[in-house]
Amino acid sequence: xxxxxxxxxxxxxxxxxxxxICLSLSNGELSTEAMDEPQLMHEHIKTFLSDQGxxxxxxxxxxxxxxxNRSSHFQSQHHKRxxxxxxxxxxxxxxxxxxxxxxxxxxxxxxxxxGDYGPTIILEHxxxxxxxxxxxxxxxxxxxxxxxxGQQIKKGAVFARIGEAAVNGNYAPHxxxxxxxxxxxxxxxxxxxxxxxxLSFYKKNCPxxxxxxxxx
Length: 216
Known about the structure:
This protein is α+β, with helices and mostly antiparallel strands. It has a single domain (about 5-210), classed as Glucose Permease (Domain IIA). It is built from 4 helices and 12 strands, in the order βααβββββββαββββα. The chain has an 8-stranded mixed β-sheet, covered by helices on one side. A two-stranded antiparallel sheet has the order 3-12.
């Protein structure tokens, strides 16, 4: 979680506050109703965290999820996008989001499609002469108000907050965190879910966010 001294992403937390959660198709404890209703999902996660004695649930890289079946945003005539390309951090809304490494604001946007990111910020970083990007989705709208392209964000700084279901694409409150090598010219948005047919490309372009070593 804290590879190469990167800070925990949620304000006021230590790595010991985090516990892994599985939200894949293999999780038989999650009903279709819970996956479709943000409040039910939030209650499920809060119960899970209470049982584990932790405050932040994380996970989801390359998980195949039924969560996206409810939205036409993830469906097309040829591909069904249901493989998650980032890490989710599940907790209460309005928690502060910390920058894991020095960077600058690349772009930001409110992606308002049902099931989409909602308010989103992308930061640009340089690490050991490698340029890469980190994407933060499902934020509050207020998180975008004071942002400018090229704005410096220091490691550990709180630069955004986690949004509620009414603004975050209709999900239980959480942060979507994704590492991207090549944004392919996109601004304020990048696919966070892919189809099985696209996985080979996206797995290389979006390495596991918990293993920054992949970007060296």
